[in-house]
């Protein structure tokens, strides 16, 4: 992983096109290193960013001709330990890995989850051959999926590959299709949910629809299979906000089955560990070959077993209806 011992400086001068933009949004899009918006916000709050000689807020609006100085502190030595944790590696080359994440695995270390994460496992597998763009806590991580969401995600081995894929994420050109079992009978065959998402004002651990301060979020869905009380849907992400599918489906009255945060799990007749959500399809232009590469994973065992239970329940209901009709046929 790339190391540096001294503070680096980055200088930006805004033009007419940048006038009116938030400084954190501008820097996240202007950096050749694909800085995340949260990383930029932390730099600003830690007073490592100067706007015309003064420390701005992340929400400060820019004017044409503004001079921005960003001081990048040298990274701390990583305290993340490689751990010998089995990984389901779908694909690997010199630039990246595609991993089929199991249920219950956290992607990177965070408060409450210092170890046992996908990052710990990847560090054991790859050693120092991981991109450094997202810092010491998230080496190689381009995008994330929730702890109890299963499925595909890509990990980059070098900064060049990371920047190439981050640009596709920014342009919404990466293919990300999820399958979910949602509560209720979804009548529409397909639809699009376009509602901005931001941090909830009532519970800071949750996300919520926020028309004032939320970021644009778009989810396309289509029905794959219906049951009396549940629906199997495919959700295609146009944007990638935190908990996007979970928030969007709950917003239309069909929360993901088993979602303890955005749904009601008290009356569910199944033993579940978190939401029934699986990242099934992942496609992107490969940074090496520059060709579209698409990966698809099978349903995980818990998902397949639950679908089979639902189908049997539905068949049982159908048979009971036939008996009732037969008994009333004079």
SS-derived structural category: alpha+beta
The total of helices stands at 6
How does CATH name the architecture of the largest domain?
Answer: 2-Layer Sandwich
Quaternary class: single chain
Strand content: 25-35%
Query: Distance between termini?
Result: 79 Å
Rg of Cα set: 23 Å
Largest sheet: 9 strands, mixed
C-alpha geometry: globular
The third-level CATH topology of the largest domain is Pseudouridine synthase
The helicity comes to 10-25%
CATH C-level label of the largest domain: Alpha Beta
Task: Fill in the keyword field for this structure.
single chain; 330 residues; Structural Genomics Hypothetical 15.5 Kd Protein In mrcA-pckA Intergenic Region, Chain A; Pseudouridine synthase; nine-stranded mixed β-sheet; globular
Q: How would you sum up this structure, described in words?
A:
This protein is α+β, with helices and mostly antiparallel strands and 330 residues long. It has 3 domains: 8-72, RNA-binding S4 domain (Structural Genomics Hypothetical 15.5 Kd Protein In mrcA-pckA Intergenic Region, Chain A); 79-171, Pseudouridine synthase; 172-330, Pseudouridine synthase, CATH 3.30.2350. It is globular, with a radius of gyration of 23 Å. The strands form 3 sheets. Strands 4, 5, 6, 7, 8, 11, 12, 13 and 14 form a 9-stranded mixed beta sheet that branches. The chain has a 3-stranded antiparallel beta sheet with strand order 1-3-2. Helix content is 22%, strand content 25%.
């Amino acid at each position: 992983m790339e190391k540096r011992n001294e503070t680096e400086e980055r200088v930006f001068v805004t033009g007419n096109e940048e006038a009116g933009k938030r400084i954190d949004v501008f820097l996240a899009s202007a950096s050749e290193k694909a800085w995340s918006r949260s990383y930029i916000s932390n730099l600003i709050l830690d007073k490592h960013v100067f706007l015309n000689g003064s420390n701005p807020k992340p929400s400060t609006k820019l004017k044409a001709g503004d001079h921005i100085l960003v001081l990048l502190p040298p990274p701390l030595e990583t305290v993340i330990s490689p751990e010998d944790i089995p990984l389901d590696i779908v694909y690997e080359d010199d630039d990246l890995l595609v991993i089929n994440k199991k249920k219950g695995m956290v992607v990177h270390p965070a408060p409450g989850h210092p170890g046992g994460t996908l990052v710990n496992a990847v560090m054991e597998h790859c050693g120092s051959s991981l991109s450094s763009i997202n810092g010491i806590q998230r080496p190689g991580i381009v995008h994330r999926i929730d702890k109890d969401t299963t499925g595909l995600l890509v990990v980059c081995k070098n900064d060049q590959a990371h920047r190439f894929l981050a640009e596709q994420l920014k342009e919404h050109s990466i293919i990300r299709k999820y399958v979910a079992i949602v509560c209720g009978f979804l009548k529409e065959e397909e639809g699009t949910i376009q509602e901005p998402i931001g941090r909830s004002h009532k519970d800071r651990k949750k996300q919520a629809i926020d028309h004032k301060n939320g970021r644009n979020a778009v989810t396309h869905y289509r029905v794959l299979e219906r049951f009396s009380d549940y629906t199997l849907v495919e959700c295609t992400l146009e944007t990638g906000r935190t908990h996007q599918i979970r928030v969007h489906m709950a917003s239309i009255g069909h929360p993901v089955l088993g979602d303890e945060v955005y749904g009601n799990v008290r009356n569910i007749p199944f033993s579940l560990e978190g939401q029934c959500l699986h990242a099934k399809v992942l496609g992107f232009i490969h940074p090496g070959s520059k060709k579209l590469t698409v990966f698809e994973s099978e349903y995980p065992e818990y998902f397949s077993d639950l679908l089979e239970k639902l189908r049997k329940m539905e068949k049982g209901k159908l048979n009971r209806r036939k008996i009732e009709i037969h008994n009333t046929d004079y």
